[in-house]
Design goal:
Chain B: It comes from Streptomyces alboniger. Chain B: Belongs to the binding-protein-dependent transport system permease family. The structure holds 2 protein chains of 2 kinds. Chain A is mainly alpha-helical. Chain A has 2 domains: about 60 residues, no CATH class; about 220 residues, MetI-like fold (Orthogonal Bundle), CATH 1.10.3720.10. The longest helix of chain A is centred in the last third of the chain and has 39 residues. Chain B has one domain: Orthogonal Bundle (MetI-like fold), CATH 1.10.3720. Classes of the chains: A mainly alpha, B mainly alpha. Chains A and B meet through helix 1, helix 2, helix 8, helix 9 and helix 10 of A and helix 4, helix 5, helix 6, helix 9 and helix 10 of B.
């Protein structure tokens, strides 16, 4: 839920930040603190989601009922799904089941872990590749722009980045399909799947990955560029320049390490946007991921299934944010 | 001798303002066109005028859609609701954030609560948030989308306002007013917020960009407007099957959304106040 919803660069990277720790605090303790904090935030999200689903008018048993089903049938199914037990009991079972990979049962009575087990790796592959592309391209472009501040390259890169960051993923996807699939016939426009449910060819991944990555590259180029510009004003960089160190050495040894925590936080924030955008992009390219599962879940009013998807994506995002915390803590030598 | 000098100085000071106008203009023109669109449409949006996915020409300048309806007419009609909804979301989020942000600067406890909410929401992708609210509110339609966009946008917007309000809240005259026994409401509305006009205007622009993204994505996922409504995002979804036969049925609304997102973003970044802009581009 970041990206276009957070306004400025500083706003976007202002994630939950580890509190300044005293020098007496050891590294392990600080790490445990970070973990606990992230885990707590995730738990709060899961409680919120469960409550939201619980407040649904009409439950899963109702939503999947067939025409002509008697009240007794409904009650039996409700019992089967465990919907007749107190909310607190169900909530406790759901939350305690999550760490063991038990996400409960969907409205149709299938275990949610089974429903997600095939499409989830596909979505993680799609999102992971898009994250890698975002990382590589935005760091490269951001550094390139930062080498000559105010130059033609800088202005071109910054302007383009600002232009594309607000584009919804499906608009980018349509443009890509038109250019690469219909007009030039270079890449496939739809994803065909193998017998095991994964994409049949790596070429089918290119367009979805690009559609996801392009708006995120727009965001992250600006973050990289801004972080480098901030770091360039730091006294140790200035003194390195005055000492006459070669430009590339100043860049790799003095500028980049200082800017790293901000860059990591910015790109970590992209994870949420990538996983959210994946739902939309998968629809366009007919990609076999959780997007199609979600679309079905919303039509079926399958609250438990949606909650399961939120739990998984929340956990993934938590993991990536924690990674960014670690980069921040490592790059600052434990001074955070 | 002094008069021309001050005139020149004044002109120099006005120069960046002209730049702002130039960058805001495309968005204003596009919004005006989208609002006037339904009256300019040559055909009704819900009656077929050509064959399904007919190529451009004759009656329909941009061809037909999946039911043979005129793409141009639907394009002209399809922007008003998207933009009106986005404007409403941007206004609601900016209003709520202005109040909460100023309150948070005066009362740190409130600020901390809002900050924690933003931390939690960061773990929930926007699309999932929309689906979740749409699911919990079956008949909500457009209002469910508005609710989702507002709930998910406010915590981020509050951060921006709180950041801008903190120095104002710490300034002497606010303390003087507080000591003078002014109520909290008066401090927020009369003392703090008027000093944040530029920030709030920029925030409104940024929230509008974000709202266009969310409302369009919801339309694409068919959570908001329902067929046969003409809506740019919905048109893309409905006609993607016939993209080979009449690309314009998909391309035209995509271009419309793309242009809207880009021009509004251009306008929003032009409105960001000088001091705040450094934070945005930091160049």
């Amino acid at each position: 839920m970041a990206g276009p919803l957070s306004g400025t660069v500083s706003e976007r990277v202002a994630g939950p930040r580890p509190r300044p720790a005293g020098p007496a605090l050891s590294g392990t303790l600080r790490l445990a603190g970070l973990l606990a904090r992230r885990a707590l935030l995730l738990a709060v999200l899961l409680v919120t989601v469960f409550v939201a689903v619980e407040l649904l008018p009409g439950d899963a048993a109702n939503a999947t009922s067939e025409r002509g089903e008697s009240a007794a049938d409904l009650a039996r199914r409700r019992e089967l799904l465990g919907l007749d037990r107190p909310v607190l009991t169900r909530f406790w079972e759901w939350m305690t089941g999550l760490p063991t990979g038990d996400f409960g049962t969907s409205a149709r009575g299938e275990p949610i872990a089974d429903i997600l087990s095939k499409p989830l790796p596909n979505t993680l592959l799609l999102g992971g590749l898009a994250l890698l592309v975002t990382l590589a391209v935005s760091i490269a472009l951001g550094c390139w722009a930062a080498l000559k501040p105010g130059g033609a390259t800088d202005r071109a890169v910054s302007a383009t980045a600002t232009g594309i960051l607000a584009l919804p993923e499906f608009v980018v996807a349509v443009a890509l399909v038109l250019v690469f699939a219909l007009w030039t016939d270079l890449l496939p426009a739809v994803t065909l799947t193998d017998a095991d449910g994964s994409p049949a060819s790596w070429r089918m991944l290119i367009l979805p990955v690009l559609a996801l990555a392009i708006p995120q590259i727009g965001w992250n180029v600006r973050i990289v560029r801004a972080a480098l510009a901030d770091e360039a004003k730091a006294p140790h960089v200035e003194s390195a320049v005055i000492d006459g160190l070669p430009r590339h050495r100043v860049f790799t040894h003095h500028l980049l390490p200082g800017a790293l925590p901000t860059i990591a936080a910015g790109i970590a924030t992209s994870t949420g946007m990538l996983l959210g955008g994946a739902v939309v992009v998968e629809t366009i390219f007919n990609y076999p991921g959780i997007g199609s599962v979600l679309a079905g879940a919303v039509t079926d009013r399958d609250g438990p299934l949606v909650a399961g998807v939120v739990a998984v994506t929340g956990a993934v995002i938590t993991g990536v944010l924690l990674l960014a915390d670690l980069v921040r803590s490592w790059a600052s030598g434990g001074r955070t | 001798m002094t008069a021309p000098l001050t005139l020149a100085k004044r002109a120099a000071r006005r120069l960046p303002r002209r730049g702002v106008v130039l960058r805001v203009l495309p968005a204003l023109l596009l919004v005006a066109l989208a609002f006037a669109g339904p009256w300019l449409a040559p055909h009704a949006i819900d009656t077929p005028v050509t064959a399904p996915y007919a190529e451009p020409g004759g009656e329909a300048a941009l061809g037909g859609d999946q039911l043979g309806r005129d793409v141009l007419s639907r394009l002209l009609a399809g922007g008003r609701e998207l933009i009106a909804t986005s404007l409403l979301v941007a206004a609601l989020v900016t209003g709520a954030a202005a109040f909460l942000g100023a309150l948070g600067a005066l009362r740190p406890a409130v600020g901390r609560v809002v900050e924690r909410c933003a931390d939690v929401l960061m773990l929930l992708p926007a699309v999932l948030g929309i689906l979740l609210i749409a699911l919990s509110w079956p008949g909500g339609g457009r209002f469910a989308v508005i609710a989702a966009a507002v709930v998910m946008g406010v915590p981020y917007a509050v951060r921006l306002v709180a950041g801008a309000a903190a120095p104002v809240a710490a300034s002497g005259y606010i303390e003087a007013a507080a000591v003078g026994g002014e109520r909290l409401w008066h401090l927020v509305v009369r003392e703090v917020l008027p000093n944040l006009r530029a920030t709030l205007l920029a925030l409104f622009g940024l929230r509008f960009v974000a709202a266009v993204y969310i409302v369009a994505t919801a339309g694409f996922l068919q959570v908001g407007p329902q067929p046969p409504a003409a809506d740019w995002a919905l048109m893309i979804r409905e006609n993607s099957g016939g993209i080979v036969l009449n690309p314009w049925a998909v391309l035209a609304p995509s271009l419309a959304i793309g242009l809207l997102a880009m021009s509004v973003n251009l306008a929003a970044s032009a409105l960001v106040p000088r001091s705040g802009r450094r934070e945005v581009t930091a160049l």
